[in-house]
Amino acid sequence: MNVSKTLQGPWLNTAIARIEADYQRSADTHLIALNMPAFAARGIDLYLKDESTHPTGSLKHRLARSLFLYALCNGLIHEGSTIVEASSGSTAVSEAYFARLLGLPFIAVMPRNTSPEKVAQIEHYGGRCHWVGSAAEVYEEARKLALETSGHYMDQFTYAERATDWRGNNNIAESMFEQMTHERHPVPRWIVVGAGTGGTSATIGRYMRYQRHHGPACQLCVADPSGSVFGAYHRSGDASLEGAGSRIEGIGRPRVEASFIRGVIDRMIEVPDADSLAAMQALSALLGRRVGPSTGTNFVGMLALAHEMLARGEEGSILSLLCDSGERYLPTYHDADWVKGKFGDCTPAQRHVTQLMHPGLAG
Question: What is the pTM of this model?
Fold first, then answer.
């Protein structure tokens, strides 16, 4: 769409002002200290930064804000532009929110197995869902729709790592380190995140280096679900790798994404699906409220690292993210019959996670 600078200027100024005003209405997300006395007694503290409290309910609210500002300031979005995104759900919910804020139409290209709660939220914000058969099909279909509508394909998988200012500006990494300031171990021994686009791990890994935290005493781990190619890519450096994709909604990918920056990640932990779901349930019980499956994947990574620290006699903190609320997954990941039909019997994984949470039981 060709819009003259004279006409575009007032609309652009208003659009950016609306996003900045929305940001000022939002408080920072909470840091939760997990009540795990068996670890605390041996000098290991575990924390979750609760990203479910954003207006759109997930970590992706930060990403969507950054993507919109990036596209606006690069002249990619204009008055009336149709916004198109390829998403497994949460990013689309957040982008639909910002599209409505700016009065722009929004189309989410998603696999058919996306949770109905996320679909309802996208539609609540005025967005439209466009279905494809699998996660591997979302990219080309989104490009096609953007071309057909003379709109803009946000392409979170390419732009996530560059849209966020990793040096600071209240990004998630800066917030995490500031909130840890008064804790027993203020600089985390490990930060654990999942990767869908890779934008969060890229931001945190770069910030750790920029602030000179990174080193043997402060490292970044990505917990990666079964089926994702990121773990194999981290080991091999082969960007042409492809895989089945993840069954844990929101993280893992069937191909290597441009925003996944391998060089800033110190460690990958590959997490079986059953362990992710068992950890999701166990963590939900510990917190007294439901969390989503990707948070379960993160929790498995945290517990694995905590046991390694125990074995070495190390003390320190482990910090991760509560990515979104489990309320989005009531008929799926939090439904026992659905889980059994999709993943089989998770009882052995539940026993395993219980042992990991209580070091005295492990054997």
Answer: 0.92
